Predict the 3D structure of the following.
Amino acid sequence: MGRGPGGTSQPEDSSCTSSWVPRPAGGQTVDRDRGRDEKVKVGYAATDKVRVDLRQHVTSRLRPDRTVPGVGTSTDVSFTPERMNAVTDGVFAIVLTLLVLELRLPEQDESVLVLLREDWRVFVAWLISFVLLARFWLVHHALTAGLRTCGSVTLALNFAVLGAVSLVPFSADVLGTERVAEPWSTVVFASNVGLLSLAVGLLARRVALEPHDGDAERSPAAPSHYQVHHLYVLPVVTLTAALLAFVHPVLAVGLLVAEFAYFAGGRRARRHHRSPGTLATTSPRGTA
């Protein structure tokens, strides 16, 4: 307000007033602190994003189907099947070697032919066990050949199979040393075969749920035959052989051998009937 003539108050012209507003003391320090806090927040956000991207990259390289906690929704951990198959092949190789170590001739002053004739049951037990292991290795190979990834449940069932496989040298030694005529030796061997069959059947059921390659021969429906046969057919055969051992032990062992031969022949027949023309008609190019 200004003084006019006669001492009266007159309003001042707004154009003459200054637009400067005094800043509070320490204002520059407050602005500098606020800007520094914002930069720190931006830096933390960028660091968190880089950390998540790095975890996703490392996980995708080491375990392709593993989901990072907080990023995906899957809870199961998937692995590539190469290491599982490598461990399985190693266990089968060691067990086959242990079977050979059980082949020993008694130290007697007899000819080799006489000793072989007296201990022929040991070699028969080795032959049956060798065919048994070869059979189950082929089944395991057929189950896991088309796997793209496998979960922790599949790994656990695979170790159950390997546990039953590791008992084969013991049951074969019992069958060969205690003579086939001893009923309980045949019961032990048949029980081992039944346990191994159940483990393989459960593995086949789980493998059918795992991701597979696109090949029609390696589709998830392929393990269905192995699943039914090893969960139901072969356990019934081994139970029958165990009961038959108390009546006719040699016939009980022959029943197990007959099952091995029947399964191998059926597998060969199924592969023979799967002709290239049949596969071609089911493919998109064959129908076009």
Summary: The longest helix spans residues 27-62. The CA atoms of residues 55 and 61 lie 10 Å apart. The radius of gyration is 38 Å. Confidence is low (pLDDT under 50) at residues 14-18, 63-74, 216-221, 275-288.
